[in-house]
Q: What sequence folds into this?
């Protein structure tokens, strides 16, 4: 039989449909993602509650949905048997309703004592990953009065930004975090002095659907008070961002759009509720910057990327048959990151070749040892080891440009990312503390991370913290390429296919296995001479890997 699937509790007002993962006729499993909703505070995937076949879709891309809205009609096998069973259960529900008045009468007793205030510890809720996210905004201060669901802080991870709401109304007594702190699920944020909120919250989860009518009178009593408090709050909240100027209220989609255009959100005038920056605000700002660039052509290079004219739109169907294939979410995120890096980093690429004839002989000689240890020794672990040695020898390559642009942050750890080609796009898992691990350990960890990447099982922790990246196309071919620096790193090594080439040794040409190297770097931090020294030293190390021990 058919069952109508609706939007579950999404913890916020509305969300926009930004991805549809299913179509009519698709067979879905229980908990399989149906679509992605994006609200002002977060994006989330909505799963199918049951397995079945999609009979009809009730939504389309761009629709705005809230809890209870229709999503799709699902044909469920065996649901006909379950339906009659549900009827007795529903019939049985009114029975406890008769006993509910006793509980309802008992409820006013604690409700009469909300005069006493309690101090509640507020922690980071489940943010959907085991990793950490950076605090980029503190939206409250000690002494502030906050409403239930009012945003307290804004977190930003590699994949999204989200606002953490207050679970209750009250007064901020103390704050345990500061800007730039990294926090995860369960971490302590602040103490909130709540006026009698604890007793009222307890009955709510226990209330059965059949008892909602009984609970309604009790719920209506506090409602006017909440409304009365909520009325002046928006006015104060809307006024707050204006004088501060430093706080930027924006959802993840708006932040992503701003990054794509190279726009500083603090420069954009907000028109949304509570001083929130909307997509339209960013678009208006970009149009204004473009207009300024047209009016003052001489200043066109000083617009910070926001004055770049868009590529003209072409109707390709005029020339023949076309097909529009949507990019995966992963491809979209990767494209935005690469675009931002290319716009913000002055790229230069240094090309070189390394003689790896002896290195390859060593690798082949250690093949049996590696197999005995249960791993496959490829060139990648040897590259990782050589690069780790160089990052310590030439520390500017193991650094990032400070946000002020006036200092270099040198890292005392050596974490290296390596690009993995997957059917859904490019992923860059990170091996931590490469300098402290053996070749066989690096081979095992690289193989495990590559497998996780292809199986879509990488965690945020697996993809964070890289100081340097290696992108190898040797298994495909080519003689060189210009990889894009993965900001905030300052360099990336591209490796192409090794080939046998004649090399002059002073007396005759000798056949040597030559490995093409392409080092792209951020010219703000690395100069050309340093880049040439890096590739030259890397060639020396790869020519005789034993020199790493010196």
A:
């Amino acid at each position: 039989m058919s069952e109508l699937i609706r939007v579950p509790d999404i913890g916020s007002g509305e969300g926009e449909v930004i991805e549809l993962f299913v179509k009519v006729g698709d067979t879905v499993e229980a908990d399989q993602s149906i679509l992605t909703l994006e609200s002002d505070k977060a994006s989330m995937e909505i799963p199918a509650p049951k397995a079945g076949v999609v009979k009809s879709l009730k939504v389309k891309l761009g629709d705005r949905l809230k809890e209870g809205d229709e999503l799709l009609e699902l044909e469920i096998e065996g649901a006909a048997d379950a339906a009659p069973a549900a009827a007795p259960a529903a019939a049985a529900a009114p029975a406890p309703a008769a006993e509910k008045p006793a509980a309802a009468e008992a409820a006013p007793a604690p409700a009469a004592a909300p005069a006493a205030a309690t101090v509640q510890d507020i922690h980071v809720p489940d943010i959907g990953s085991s990793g950490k996210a950076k605090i980029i905004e503190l939206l409250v201060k000690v002494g502030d009065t906050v409403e239930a669901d009012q945003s307290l802080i804004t977190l930003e991870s590699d994949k999204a930004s989200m606002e953490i709401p207050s679970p209750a109304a009250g007064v901020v007594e103390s704050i345990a975090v500061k800007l730039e702190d990294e926090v995860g699920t369960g971490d302590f944020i602040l103490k909130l002095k709540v006026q009698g909120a604890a007793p009222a919250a307890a009955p709510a989860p226990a209330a059965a659907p059949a008892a909602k009518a009984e609970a309604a009178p009790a719920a209506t009593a506090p409602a006017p008070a909440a409304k009365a408090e909520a009325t002046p709050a928006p006015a104060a909240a809307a006024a707050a961002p204006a004088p501060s100027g430093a706080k930027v209220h924006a959802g993840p989609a708006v932040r992503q759009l701003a990054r794509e255009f190279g726009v500083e959100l603090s420069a954009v005038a907000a028109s949304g509720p509570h001083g929130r920056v909307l997509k339209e605000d960013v678009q208006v700002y970009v149009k204004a910057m473009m207009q300024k660039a047209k009016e003052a052509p001489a200043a066109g290079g000083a617009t910070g990327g926001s004055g770049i004219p868009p590529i003209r739109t072409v109707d390709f169907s005029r020339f023949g048959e076309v097909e529009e294939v949507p990019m995966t979410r992963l491809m979209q995120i990767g494209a935005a990151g690469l675009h931002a890096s290319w716009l913000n980093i002055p790229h230069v690429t240094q090309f070189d070749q390394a003689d790896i004839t002896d290195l390859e002989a060593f690798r082949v000689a250690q093949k049996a040892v590696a197999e005995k240890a249960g791993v496959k020794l490829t060139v990648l672990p040897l590259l990782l080891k050589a690069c780790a040695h160089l990052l310590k020898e030439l520390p500017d390559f193991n650094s990032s440009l400070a946000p002020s642009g006036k200092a270099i942050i040198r890292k005392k750890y050596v974490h290296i990312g390596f690009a993995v080609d997957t059917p859904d796009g490019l992923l860059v898992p990170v091996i931590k503390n490469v300098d402290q691990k053996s070749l066989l350990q690096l081979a095992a960890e690289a193989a495990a991370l590559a497998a996780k990447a292809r199986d879509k099982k990488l965690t945020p922790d697996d993809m964070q913290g890289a100081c340097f990246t290696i992108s190898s196309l040797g298994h495909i071919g080519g003689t060189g390429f210009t990889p894009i620096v993965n900001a905030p790193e300052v360099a990336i090594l591209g490796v192409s296919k090794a080939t046998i080439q004649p090399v002059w040794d002073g007396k005759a040409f000798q056949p040597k296995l030559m490995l093409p190297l392409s080092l792209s770097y951020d010219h703000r931090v690395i100069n050309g001479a340093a880049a040439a020294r890096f590739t030259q030293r890397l060639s020396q190390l790869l020519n005789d890997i034993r020199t790493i021990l010196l």
